[in-house]
Amino acid sequence: MRIISGTYKGRRITAPKKLPIRPTTDMAKESLFNILNNQYYFDAISVLDLFSGSGNISYEFASRGTTNITSVDANFGCIKFINETAEAFNMPIQTIKSDVFKYLEKTTTPHTIIFADPPYDFSVEEFSKIPELIFQNNLLEEEGLLIVEHSKHTDLSHLTNYSHSKGYGGNMFSFFALPVNEETV
């Protein structure tokens, strides 16, 4: 995997083969960040990277100037790799080794962007728990986005606060947002 843009543009990061990961492809990641680049100032947001795996998404945010990044993964090897990589590049990434669902039940910190890349073989019920917990616990800032990466064979359009999806090869990103309050518009 490589960092697409920012301070560390072009840097390649190679995760150990033994990690249970499926990094977001460079093409899909570049397309996603082109969308986000038009909506956010990266140095002014906070990011929560769930099922962070290799840390691929966290590194991209850090390279683009985000200084408030939290990566959550249940695998000790993944957390260790993210810590080592973040330290080597002097990136401001805080890691938390935890089951994502338990973390979402306990945390109270809202974020601007929450990115979730759970295993593609999750059931729709497992996928649905992610936005359910995030919106139930008010973990998304008012102008924020929840982005869930999944296979093109999974449909999340029926879930609460679903906005839209974008597909890139076999990857899909489903976007979720708080409803716009018409009184404040």
TrEMBL record:
Which is one Pfam family of this protein? Answer: Cons_hypoth95
Which controlled-vocabulary keywords does the entry list? Answer: Methyltransferase, Transferase
Ranges that cross the membrane = none
> Which InterPro entries does the record match to this protein?
RNA_MeTrfase_RsmD, SAM-dependent_MTases_sf
Q: Which GO terms describe its molecular function?
A: 16S rRNA (guanine(966)-N(2))-methyltransferase activity
List its EC numbers.
2.1.1.171
Record has Transferase as a keyword? yes
Q: Does the keyword Methyltransferase apply?
A: yes
UniProt cross-references to SUPFAM superfamilies, sorted A to Z: S-adenosyl-L-methionine-dependent methyltransferases (SSF53335)
Family annotation (NCBIfam families): 16S rRNA (guanine(966)-N(2))-methyltransferase RsmD
Full protein name: 16S rRNA (Guanine(966)-N(2))-methyltransferase RsmD
Gene that this polypeptide is encoded by: rsmD
